[in-house]
Design goal:
With 359 residues, the chain is of the alpha/beta class. The chain is 42% helix and 15% strand. Helix 3 links the parallel strand 2 and strand 3. Helix 4 packs parallel to helix 6 and helix 10 crosses helix 12.
Length: 359
């Protein structure tokens, strides 16, 4: 179904040089989409997943906060659908530079939606936020889309605000008759803790593990008992593509917020994740350091809505997701890039599971 809906479509992808964005660029390219990426240059050109993929797609290296350049690029490309992944995605970085975090995540999203509002070619926008957009109550159950938004740290709060910006545009500016255009359908997707090869961000568990292990050191862990909804990057992307497909098929009810998380039993502690990683990669070791102030101890997502209404569900359980992740990094350390092979393996496994979106 993906290949039918995206083949030949003009797709605008912000954040394509980042971790999730580069994987989505690869998948869209394989689906035959005409992709135009818009993002900042990768911080490390040599190790960046986007640079290693070397995909033959159009790329504009610019800042999402630059409203005029963004508007001009969108107008020239005239996309049919936009996937918005560009963001300042790190909690600790948001403490160091809160204004950049707010400007990028909130005003960057507003810049994008405002440009799309006046562009008749754009039918749908999928805005990617995070599971951390909820006002955390330290509940033992998963957050639902109807729960209150909020956030203590600047990153989480900015993502909650991003959700409000998207909801405001969805409710206020869907009618674009003044522009001679059909309604603009806007959905948001709130994914869990995404893991997978090609992530080199600072202060994230898996990249920290890889860097420490490669240097024959123990990775420093702030809170080994912290529980998170871990999922492989391809799981979240499959949901984004499915949401986009439904919007392109003019299913107006899909223009809303969606949680995208793993099976309930795959929400696990940091220590459990490290133990599973070590089983596949014996060189991994860790030691605890002081915990960060105000760090959430438990975070789970309730993804019932997308499973029931869109028939989406994860393909890889946590153990397999971690195995695929560690194998990607171990191969990378040996000079091998396994991204295309892992994408194909994921699709094969999805077909075996009988998931309708693979056909």
């Amino acid at each position: 179904m993906f290949s039918n809906i995206y083949h030949g479509r003009r797709v605008f992808l912000t954040g394509h040089t980042g971790f999730k964005g580069s994987w989505l660029a690869l998948w869209l390219h394989k689906l035959g989409a005409q992709v135009h990426g818009y993002a900042l240059p990768p911080e490390d050109e040599q190790s960046a997943h986007w640079s290693q993929l070397d995909l033959p797609i159009a790329s504009t290296l610019a800042d999402i906060r630059d409203a005029e350049t963004l508007r001009a690029t969108l107008k020239e490309f005239a996309p049919e659908i936009v996937f918005h992944l560009a963001a300042q995605p790190l909690v600790l970085a948001s403490y160091r530079d809160p204004l950049t975090t707010w400007q990028t995540n909130v005003m960057g999203t507003a810049n994008l939606l405002e440009a799309c509002r006046g562009l008749p070619s754009v039918k749908a926008v999928v805005v990617i936020t995070t599971d951390k957009c909820y006002e955390n109550q330290e509940w033992c159950w998963g957050y639902r889309e109807s729960d209150a938004l909020g956030g203590h740290d600047p990153y989480s709060a900015s993502k909650a605000a991003t959700e409000l910006v998207a909801a405001s545009y969805r409710q206020s500016f869907a009618d674009r008759s003044a522009f001679g255009a059909s309604p603009l359908l806007i959905a948001t997707a709130r994914a869990g803790n995404v893991i997978g090869g090609g992530d080199w961000a600072a202060d994230r568990l898996i990249p920290d593990v890889v860097r420490a292990t490669a240097a024959q050191k123990a990775v420093e862990v702030r809170n080994p008992l912290a529980i998170r909804p871990w999922q492989h990057v391809l799981e979240s992307l499959s949901a984004y593509l499915l949401i986009g497909q439904k919007l392109l098929q003019d299913e107006h009810s899909v223009a809303r917020a969606w949680n995208v998380g793993p099976a309930d039993e795959d929400s696990a502690s940091v220590a459990q994740v490290l133990d599973v990683l070590r089983a596949d990669w014996p060189a991994v070791s860790w030691q605890q350091v002081g915990a960060m102030a105000h760090e959430t101890s438990a975070l789970r997502l309730d993804s019932s809505r997308i499973r029931v209404e869109l028939a989406w569900k994860p393909v890889w359980r946590l153990q397999q997701a971690l195995a695929q992740t560690s194998q990607w990094y171990q191969a990378w350390l040996q000079g091998e890039l396994r991204s295309e092979a892992q994408l194909q393996q994921y699709l094969n496994d999805a077909t075996t599971h009988g998931l309708s979106w693979t056909r």
